[in-house]
Amino acid sequence: SVSNGGDEDGGRELVELKVIWNKNKYDVKFCLDSTGAELKQKIHSLTGLPPAMQKVMFKGLLPEEKTLREIKVTNGAKIMVVGSTINDVLAVNTPKEAAQQEVKAEENKKEPLCRQKQHRKVLDKGKPDDVMPSVKGVQERLPTVPLSGMYNKSGGKVRLTFKLEQDQLWIGTKERTEKLPMGSIKNVVSEPIEGHEDYHMMAFQLGPTEASYYWVYWVPTQYVDAIKDTVLGKWQYF
């Protein structure tokens, strides 16, 4: 049912298609009464992309069981193909990398953040005397005063000031105050502190990787959601 040559194919009507895959273009003449599944086989012969890994688009996803005539494919129609060959997939994600990712995921599942060594050395100092009181099971708006009395990862005191009118988060220590645009913070993560679940440890991601996390310990639980929503801009979606 396939011809790349003349216009005759046993008297059956052919249609000229442009098949586009991965920046490559293929001019194909194909029988109008062939099905989407047969077209996938043709695409396989052109690209090496197995039919099961093809997503073929013509005015939406191409139905495999219908003929090109039924879905009104006409001369010059563009057929878009999305998919990666098995070799491409293997090149991107080698078994070694996959194994490393699985091991890391397992480790992260097993060990809560607050038991990890880097966090233990701060948490073992105990709850700061001047930390703000927590209210368990309640979500509150951010207070108008700075959140204070917390520790950073070096065990120094830190306070968080949310300057909403300037769209900034100010992270203040005894030595200095960093003024960060909310939009520059990529993510906010938090986890309850074991044995003190009414307080959280929280990290602000200031760069592209986890190495850029700025950790804050003993954040009162009632403010955790409000902090995330404020910094990540969730309010914009309502």
UniProtKB/TrEMBL annotation:
<dbReference type="InterPro" id="IPR057455">
    <property type="entry name" value="UBFD1_C"/>
</dbReference>
<dbReference type="InterPro" id="IPR000626">
    <property type="entry name" value="Ubiquitin-like_dom"/>
</dbReference>
<feature type="domain" description="Ubiquitin-like">
    <location>
        <begin position="15"/>
        <end position="82"/>
    </location>
</feature>
<dbReference type="InterPro" id="IPR039120">
    <property type="entry name" value="UBFD1"/>
</dbReference>
<dbReference type="Pfam" id="PF00240">
    <property type="entry name" value="ubiquitin"/>
</dbReference>
<protein>
    <submittedName>
        <fullName>UBFD1 protein</fullName>
    </submittedName>
</protein>
<dbReference type="GO" id="GO:0045296">
    <property type="term" value="F:cadherin binding"/>
</dbReference>
<dbReference type="Pfam" id="PF25343">
    <property type="entry name" value="PH_UBFD1_C"/>
</dbReference>
<dbReference type="GO" id="GO:0003723">
    <property type="term" value="F:RNA binding"/>
</dbReference>
<dbReference type="InterPro" id="IPR019954">
    <property type="entry name" value="Ubiquitin_CS"/>
</dbReference>
<dbReference type="InterPro" id="IPR029071">
    <property type="entry name" value="Ubiquitin-like_domsf"/>
</dbReference>
